Structure formats: structure tokens, C-alpha cells
């Protein structure tokens, strides 16, 4: 794995590579999300082992999904038990604001997920719904390391 969590033999598209390598706040965002997820372990009655599945693709096991739901609430992607388009855009904007094409793409992601996410599920399952949708339209947002 390299600094960006990508195996050296994996080729990234220029757009996907740009999102992370040209973002000066990548490391800060990654560290903050990791620390926040760890703080959510308490509310989910989870352990360090329950964080591991979050490096994979959803759907995540129950406790992992509950950690993720707590994280999404803390960063305002989930508000009042629902996916928040504005929360998503506020959270993602610092990573893409210098690239209009990426910003427009993330706006489309937020609109698609607002329409597609099933809100008639448990809060933990909502985290699976949201991340599945986001990774479907923006796989470059998946922190796999």
C-alpha cells in the first residue's frame, strides 16, 4: 500500500487520483474520521474488531453499521434519522472545492442518494443504505485503509 492506501499495482483514473492526492487535507480528514469512528464504538457497544469490516464494501455487519451510523450523524450526513444532502455536501466540499467538475459530481451523488436511500430501516441499516449509495456513485470516497 502507498501513502493513499492504494496498492502500487492498482491504477487509478486521473479523476480518482486527483481527489485524494491533490487534497492537502486528505490525511487530516482520514485521521479525524478514524478517531470519530473509534469514539462511536462506545455508543455501539462495539470493539476494535468491529471497525475492520468498514474497510470493505457494504453492507456491513450490525455493530460495524452502528459505528458508521454514529459517525455519519457526527459529521451531519445523517440528520434526524435521514440522509442529508446538505450535510453530505458540507462534509465533502473541502476535498473537492478546487475542482468544479468534482464538486458538480458530488452534488449529483448527493441528489441521487437523497432519492435512492431507503429511510424505512433501522438507524444502523440506514448507514449501510447511505454508504452503499455513496460508493455506488463515488467509489473514490471509500477509505479502504
Automatic annotation (TrEMBL):
GO terms for molecular function: odorant binding. It holds the Pfam family PBP_GOBP. InterPro entries: PBP/GOBP, PBP_GOBP_sf. Transmembrane segments: none annotated. Gene3D superfamilies: Pheromone/general odorant binding protein domain (1.10.238.20). It comes from the Eukaryota. The lineage of its organism: Eukaryota, Metazoa, Ecdysozoa, Arthropoda, Hexapoda. This is Odorant-binding protein 3. CDD domains: PBP_GOBP. It comes from Danaus plexippus plexippus.
Amino acid at each position: 500500500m502507498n501513502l493513499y492506501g492504494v496498492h502500487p499495482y492498482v491504477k487509478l483514473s486521473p479523476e480518482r487520483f486527483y481527489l485524494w492526492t491533490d487534497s492537502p487535507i486528505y490525511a487530516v480528514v482520514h485521521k479525524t474520521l478514524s478517531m470519530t469512528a473509534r469514539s462511536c464504538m462506545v455508543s455501539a457497544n462495539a470493539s476494535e474488531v468491529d471497525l475492520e469490516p468498514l474497510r470493505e464494501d457494504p453492507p456491513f455487519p450490525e455493530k460495524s453499521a452502528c459505528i458508521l451510523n454514529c459517525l455519519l450523524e457526527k459529521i451531519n450526513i445523517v440528520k434526524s434519522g435521514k440522509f442529508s444532502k446538505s450535510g453530505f455536501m458540507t462534509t465533502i466540499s473541502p476535498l473537492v472545492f478546487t475542482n468544479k467538475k468534482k464538486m458538480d459530481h458530488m452534488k449529483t451523488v448527493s441528489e441521487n442518494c437523497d432519492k435512492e436511500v431507503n429511510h424505512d430501516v433501522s438507524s444502523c441499516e440506514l448507514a449501510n443504505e447511505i454508504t452503499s449509495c455513496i460508493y455506488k456513485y463515488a467509489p473514490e470516497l471509500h477509505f479502504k485503509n
